[in-house]
Design goal:
The structure is a single chain. With 258 residues, the chain is of the alpha+beta class. The chain has 5 helices and 19 strands. A hairpin with a 2-residue loop joins β18 and β19.
Length: 258
């Protein structure tokens, strides 16, 4: 299973993020906070304003992609996330928005943008948004009443998802171990185990064998050493653990970011 780093090709004019999409389940798997009079109020935002806050891009987070010939993971480095956020505004794309990557929608504007530098002191922490250092956060003003009423307040859309163009320049082969590749491929086989609970979709977890398990759509390992090896490959540090089926499983990175 390949892990591909997506980069900005600064020599290519068609490059970077063109729009932000409102989606039910974002590729970065991070819900936004809806800021209005009936939900959470942002300081100095009055009751008339309709604003969404959330993560637009999280660095070093493997994102599963299904390819024509093989499946793979992609990720963005801290440097690419920062450059992409700057290029987004430089190209004047803050008014470009879509619904589920299909329908262009008007009257939505990114009005605030920042890179998280301290997880404890960042504004995102005020709203219990657990994101790592280097995350690109945005606030979006929604002047489209139909979108706000029918899709935001109703809970149909839950997060942001970027759309644009990047280059594949760095490829890492995560492992040539056939048993690990088989375990990763099992992700597709359990897609039918999705269970919907209220407005949240959860993926059932499963033990593959004594070496691998899939927990919340993430591959977990039976040893700390393996988790730390994968963490190094994808650009994070350390490991964390999950208790599942009477065993302790190890995952890359110090914490599990949803």
């Amino acid at each position: 299973m390949k892990i591909i780093e997506l980069l900005l090709d600064e020599e290519n004019e068609v490059n970077g993020i063109e729009a932000v999409s409102l989606v039910e389940s974002g590729a970065i798997e991070s819900d936004f906070i809806a800021l209005n009079s009936q939900e959470i109020k942002l300081a100095k935002v009055d009751d008339e304003k309709q604003i969404l806050m959330g993560a637009a891009l999280i660095p070093n987070k493997p994102i599963f992609r299904k390819g024509d010939s093989e499946d793979y993971y992609v990720y963005f480095s801290n440097d690419t996330v920062r450059k992409a956020s700057e290029l987004f505004f430089k190209n004047g794309n803050q008014n470009n928005a879509t619904l589920e990557h299909n329908l262009a929608i008007n009257d939505l504007t990114v009005v605030e943008s920042w890179i998280v530098e301290n997880t404890e002191k960042d504004k995102s922490a005020i709203y219990d948004l657990e994101v790592p250092v280097g995350t690109w956060m945005i606030s979006m003003k929604v002047n489209n009443e139909k979108i706000w009423k029918d899709f935001v307040k109703s809970g149909v859309v839950r997060g942001f998802s970027i759309e644009g163009y990047f280059s594949d320049k760095a490829t890492i082969q995560a492992s040539k171990d056939e048993s690990e590749i088989d375990a990763l491929n099992k992700i597709d086989e359990i897609k039918n185990l999705f269970v919907k609970k209220k407005d949240k979709i959860e993926l059932a977890s499963i033990v593959i064998d004594k070496n691998f398990a899939i927990i919340d759509d993430r591959l977990a390992y039976s040893t700390q050493e393996k988790a730390e090896e994968i963490a190094k490959n994808i650009g994070c540090k350390g490991y964390h653990t999950h208790e599942f089926e009477n065993n302790t499983w190890f995952m890359p990175c110090e914490k599990h970011i949803n």
